[in-house]
Multicopper oxidase type 3 (Exiguobacterium sp.), 515 residues
Amino acid sequence: MKECYSMKSKGMWFLLTGILIGGIFVLLVVLFNGTWNHNNNMDQNHMMGHDSATSQMDDHMMSDNGMDDNDGPMGHGAMQELQASDEPTKPLPIPTALQPDRVTGDTVYYTVEATKGTSQFFKDGKKSETFGYNGDLLGPMIELPKGKTVVIDTINRLDEPTTFHWHGLVIPADMDGGPHQTVPPGERAQVRLDIDQEPSTLWFHPHPMGSTAEQVYKGLAGLLYVTDDAQNGLPNEYGVDDIPLIVQDRLFTPNGELDYDAHMNVDGTTGDTILANGAINTTFDVQTETLRVRLVNGSNARDFDFTLSNEAEMTQIATDGGPLERPIPLETLTLTPGERAEVLIDFSQVEDVAALKADGVTFTTFRIGELDKASIKIPTIETVERSTDETADRRLTLFGMGNMVSINGKTYDPERIDIEAKRGDTEVWEIENKPDMMGGMTHPFHIHGVQFRVISRDGKPPSDQEKGWKDTVAVAPDERVKIELTFTKTGTFMYHCHILEHEENGMMGQVNVTE
Ligand SMILES: [Cu+2]
């Protein structure tokens, strides 16, 4: 018996040593060759039913773009090409409208729990570990009525610290859920939010130092609708003529699982598959002539160009923080990570189907049935004429890629205040994106606790599409964007690039607002 045991254990040692050497070999190959994502991508193409000629062509195209597959320490990693999925269609999931725990006078009480769950993304795929708010993936829609106080009990049921950040809400910094408001695992925290801003589509997501990107990637993102009874001229029957689309790109392992560690890219983790409200290849049955769609770019790093398959125009009616000065007809709507827009889509002339595409790839198909007539009154906000040569009170220079990113030459330090501001003062910030030798990349610049106006891009007035309240603005390489803002709440707020991996790498600063 004893000899047999020792033979077994010797065999075991050989096996373990073999695995160890093999592991080191694979690691070296990954480090020096950088072919990891590349191979995964090819495997996946295979699984998704693309033939090898297609995937070789994709590889070829990537090389021709001048992007190599090497995710070196400086970044410049290959962005995944979006692919149409041949996954069977499924009805678009509509996030639950969260019911208040109770309502007393002017106060509405909710409970939001960050939890671990599992999700199966592919019909024949394995289940993945995912995160969600009050569920397995993503979160509910929380209505925040203008003029009310909303009290939210936040509970962290994850095994790691998280925060609950209310992206776009104009609230004091200690309620904002930035990196300073960590909720340890198993603990809870209560926030009190006085809702006093334009009706709009905001969202909430985690913001803990070092794991924001991974937690969002795994599924933590939910909707916040600021509503106002006075604004009732728009379609507003939730899930019927007023639908949200949280659009995200994800990369899956050959067996259909999400694996952040395997696919993480320091320049922003991208995927080849588009998810709408957490699902692949979705359909929505349209019942009214006019559908209001609230688009949220919830991806870690990818910009999306949204178009309709029938090349019809959409009408954009709102930006991040509320209505536009006037509705804008457009064929292509571009959103960078963190940005939102509301559009109206007119189906009265559409037969059978029309689809929404991102970068030319269909992700949600609208099926047209009997349509109810819609009578719409589109709200607008006051037009504000601004001088585009307004002098900047602050200059912020965004620079770098990968893990060499900075704002004004510095990376985030929680102990350092970068900007001191006074509550109620109106300031002009000029945000410059300084290109590097490789040309640089677009950075979506986000400020907490405030809604701002874009006043110029390279000295020219912004497009009509940007003439509304914003909390996140795209700044292209070599571009200077001026914004005007007035902090109305106090405390230490973050400003940062909303490419989540750039934020993690330190492309973030702090503005302290005092009385
Ligand atoms: Cu960035």
